[in-house]
Amino acid sequence: MSNEPSELLRSLRSLSGPFPSWDIEHLPDRPGKLFLDWLRVAIDSDVKEPHAMTISTVDQDGRPDARILILKNVVDDSFYFASSSESQKGQQLKDNPHVALTFYWPALGRQIRIKGTAEDMGDEAGADDFRKRLAGARAVAMTGHQSQKLESEEVLESSIEAQKERIQRDPDVVSPQWRLYAVNAKEVEFWQGDSERKHVRIQYVLQGGLWKQYRLWP
Ligand SMILES: Cc1cc2nc3c(=O)[nH]c(=O)nc-3n(C[C@H](O)[C@H](O)[C@H](O)COP(=O)(O)O)c2cc1C
Hints:
Layout: H1 5-10, H2 31-44, E1 52-58, E2 64-70, E3 73-75, E4 78-84, H3 88-95, E5 98-105, E6 110-120, H4 123-131, H5 135-143, H6 153-169, E7 178-192, E8 200-207, E9 210-216
Antiparallel strand pairs: 1-2, 1-5, 3-4, 4-7, 5-6, 6-7, 7-8, 8-9
């Protein structure tokens, strides 16, 4: 095997298939419905972590920023995630709620791209999501400072320990910084890869309160 990165990368296959069929003559009226149909196929096909998605935000200097998060819920055409309002993304969303979500399920050759605005669902929704987290995850979230510079492992360990004790004393304690956000979709693209590169792309666009569908060139 070559040590040249370009040759090494060229030797890797992508979109080799076979992929599931997709009947684009009978598409649901709404993208949220098609998303759930595709999610069920991904789960039935044993796609690993199909609920992990890339969320892209825009920072205070207008630069893109992106990271992976877990999808928590889908209601109509809104896609939910949870995170700390103290984090970089939390700060960015306060200034600019525009986001993009991206899913890729390699075993199915499927990509889904969502554009919309993120909305903080309020104190009770954040607390409710927080209470559903495992005790260990709650303790780490309670330490706060997500995305800030960490001085040492010891500081982190003692902070987690202190929060675990706090949760033991008060099992209902919640972190007010833990927020549930809904991304209200305005544009959603479903992309079915093809090994001959004749990819099938359907874009839903919200226009005047109604979802319009367009086929896009591969
Ligand atoms: C598979 C996976 C799932 C993740 N899920 C979450 C999540 O649900 N919420 C969260 O705040 N961070 C999650 N993270 C961590 C984020 O990618 C990120 O490191 C963190 O939220 C800080 O991002 P920020 O500095 O851009 O705010 C996850 C990371 C991975 C790889």
